[in-house]
């Protein structure tokens, strides 16, 4: 059995990973082809974003049938063979479970629309108010969060796209349906679940307007959320001791995350939170441009590391996923310091307390594609916001600049396997354009160069396995006031690991001796993105994006 504290999860967005049959979409057989590659990297779990039958309005997060694999991705037999082939390599499959909503193409919703009471109660239908929707809540993808159904003279709630209808978790019958789905996939040999926006499932008993915000305070970490998660745990994965779970927690708090992930609470193994990925939102607004606030980033990391350790909770550590732009394009410098900044960002999170997640392509430094035309964007949120920003009078050039840096499609471009046509992703026409830098940045080049970003990730993954301090130690921020360095010390028994990261292209000098309050007998360099050794801790000159970890005894 794997210890999830020493494990690393690799996220696959199947649509963009590897196409085995030339239809332009990645598929399960494509993933099987690349298992040896993932074994070489050293990951323990593969999280697959949704592969179920879906109209793909939100790339699979609009599920029409939880029990079957979408033909675009393959067949159930191919899924079973993926589970088997992965297991041979000691890699386990984690599935993405979307239980806040279903597609409006799901048979439950179709029956609801026909007027079947049982299924109407699976969703959230409400009367409007004086010709207006039941509340003024805003959908996460823009616009009002309610859709009118004339036949009933009622509205249904959709916190996301209009084709993603929210489920009514207050209905016990619905909850049982969900348990059945999870147990079905457990039977198939799945060893992990990622629960999509799971902290939004408990809606309030009274629906009221939000005069302070977009409505999220009424349903985020809602009234019955802990009760529902405990019940889900008890009826499904909690019956097995080798299944890990991670909840995607939108706009959450440390207190709630401790509850979600403290083993005594019997809810989930770990949680994703997004606070550190809002440090470049101007006044909290995603669709704006701003340099990242480094001070705030350091404070957030420190708060969450210590808060979760003290509360016996467990974090999922990540920069990248299918909803976030590529981190090296975002907080690094991919033009001048591609390798240095990509590896520095990796060191920063991999050696913290929590379980690291690597998003496909991150391990060899894939970047944002810098699409120039709106036609190149496929994501429903990006297209909605393109229109919203236009209607606010923002000019085309500015909007394209915002999309280039903020769109979710930045991370959804095909994996750059090599320098052949379509980066070796497909022999057909890819569903979304390949980034133009694929001739330089691709997996083949990375594998052929022992100094590449890929081997740096491999080393980081290995350090977690070798050093107990990384999984079980405390975490203290060093040089808290430093304007360009984020450093921290991990501590367990009499051993210490210090991790230093220069977040900028400017050089600087630091003195670590001043930070250390114990006797130093021996300093061992565990990793350095400049291949250096660090013996004199009193004066360390840090080069652009320099990053290293040392072990002190
Ligand atoms: C999560 C997913 C995102 C999706 C949304 C609605 O945030 O990661 O891709 O659009 O939930 O399901």
UniProtKB/TrEMBL annotation:
Matches recorded under Gene3D superfamilies: Glycosidases, Golgi alpha-mannosidase II, Oligo-1,6-glucosidase, Domain 2
Enzyme Commission no: 3.2.1.93
GO terms of molecular function: alpha,alpha-phosphotrehalase activity
InterPro entries for this protein: GH, GH13_cat_dom, Glyco_hydro_b, O16G_dom_2, SusG-like_C, Trehalose_TreC
Top-level EC class as recorded in UniProt: hydrolase
Pfam family membership, one: SusG_C
SUPFAM superfamilies, A to Z: (Trans)glycosidases, Glycosyl hydrolase domain
Parts forming coiled coils: none
This protein's UniProt keywords: Glycosidase, Hydrolase
Annotated ranges, domain Glycosyl hydrolase family 13 catalytic: 11-412
Keyword Hydrolase belongs to the record: yes
KW Ubl conjugation (keyword) present: no
Recorded family membership: Belongs to the glycosyl hydrolase 13 family.
PANTHER family associated with the record: ALPHA-AMYLASE FAMILY MEMBER, TREHALOSE-6-PHOSPHATE HYDROLASE
Protein's name in the database: Alpha,alpha-phosphotrehalase
The organism of origin for this protein: Clostridium weizhouense
Upper classification of the organism: Bacteria, Bacillati, Bacillota, Clostridia, Eubacteriales
Gene symbol of the encoding locus: treC
